[in-house]
Structure prediction request, 605 residues.
Amino acid sequence: MPVPVTTSSAEPAPIALPKTSESERLLRIRHSMSHVMAMAVQKLFPKAQVTIGPWTESGFYYDFDSPDPFTEADLKAIKKEMIRIINKKLPLERIDVSRAEAESRIQAQNEPYKLEILAGIQEPISLYTLGEEWWDLCAGPHVANTSELNAKAFELESVAGAYWRGDETKAQLQRIYGTAWETPEQLAEHKRRKEEALRRDHRRLGTDLDLFSIEDEAGAGLVFWHPRGARMRLLIEDLWRDLHFKAGYELLYTPHVADISLWKTSGHLDFYAESMFGPMQVDERQYQLKPMNCPFHVLTYASTLRSYRELPIRWAELGTVYRYERPGVMHGLMRVRGFTQDDAHVFCFPEQISDEILRILDLTEQILSTFDFRNYEINLSTRPEKSIGEDAVWELATQGLIEALNRKGWAYKIDEGGGAFYGPKIDLKIEDAIGRMWQCSTIQLDFNLPERFALEYVAADGTRQRPIMIHRAIFGSLERFFGIMTENYAGDFPFWLAPEQIRLLPVTDEVMPYAEELLGQLNAAGVRARIDHSGDRLGKLIRNGEQMKIPVLAVIGAKEAESGQVSLRSRRDGDLGSASVADLLAAATGANAHRAAGLGLSAQP
Prediction:
């Protein structure tokens, strides 16, 4: 679980910002504020029709069908009207009505969206009034009176497009997002965190640091890794492979496409077709881009009869998959149409589950902590109402997960009935540098695919038995993890991971031969370095290096060239003074070997 922040007595305590789901008070405030906003919009824009207006974890929104687009000036006017409504101290009251009365009220207002909402509501039907002027279908809860809302603790943040019912074939609406808090101090902290998140946005940093791009000409949601980003990705992959080999895994490489019959057998065409690209015709056969790697690993297992002596079998793959995502949900590296999963599958028998899960938890912690993710939230999801498999196997599998988590010593929450239909699972969220939680790692037990593909192993008594399959990903996907990691570091990557670790800054052309010689030595030692050949003045050379967040800048002037030294400037440790080439090489190679954040050199006295 996330470690609570501790502060000294001299420092003010950080302002806590609870989520809506964690605070009944905030839920009522935000739900009520959404109604106040809708009332204000319809007061100022009588032709605007309301649809839905729920709370979110940090605020609220309402969708409107309005003939004219809302502008920034409109948001200011709406906020001003909301303050006027709040100050009127209007009561919010629940009224239960019959379906006929609700229909009559809606028809009188000419609100067709409300009629469609009403059709999906079971009696009793409730609505909430806001004073005597405005009402909407709603189950609540709300504050009792607008006097409970703080007019200085809310903000209207943005306008975005949205489709009615999330269906691209239906009307396009305008969604106004807002946030509301109990105090102005909470609002100020929320704004500060939003600004910090914007500063860390991986999409901006990806461009500024020349790491990756998504090119419209090639298609939406497809990532182009630039040399700097590709170098980092290779470092991450090498770390991943190295630790997997040490943890007893073997690697697989599997195709990107397969005959469509495979996806019928696996069940993906029945349960996952909407997220798959369409098939392609090749030699009178239909092939399908893979949305997942697991059926390929299953086929590899089934390629020969296995013995109980071989189990557990641990296979891992950095497998690129392709999934159809709607245009409105794609977001930088976080949600794309082509991505590489750090997939692994373990085939074992029930008695091995606890040990294997513990091994996976240990490996997960080892990998994530290397990137400075050390605080986690963990959920254990149990058998849902609709599921497959025998009760005894489910019980043994679930107890195996619980036992492994207890042996690991990690706190967790139980999500009753939240497991997949094919088995229980563990989901792990990581906390970043500004307190946000990201879903990354998952461990899922599967009774379904071994059954669908009739997987077997020969048991000690000579009988044929069905193995249990464990699905496991630690990063989730390389693309998404790269985005999360970039935002966690704000693009200021530790020395071992930086795409360019040392930039040499020759002050004059006369020292260029020395710089070239030093560059060769650094590159030969596996240190990622380059020379700034721009010829700019030293101040500009340093600023350019800082803008690209280079961990170490090495200034080379006539003095350094003559003495065989460099003058070092570290982003992490400041001015390091002069160092010999031997010391620089030793420090850089040592930092890489230990995956260190900094160079490890101290400033000379």
Summary: The first helix runs from residue 24 to 44. The chain has three domains: 20-199, 212-254+293-371+446-487, 502-593. The chain has 18 helices and 28 strands. Residues 212-254+293-371+446-487 form a domain with the BirA Bifunctional Protein; domain 2 fold (CATH 3.30.930.10).
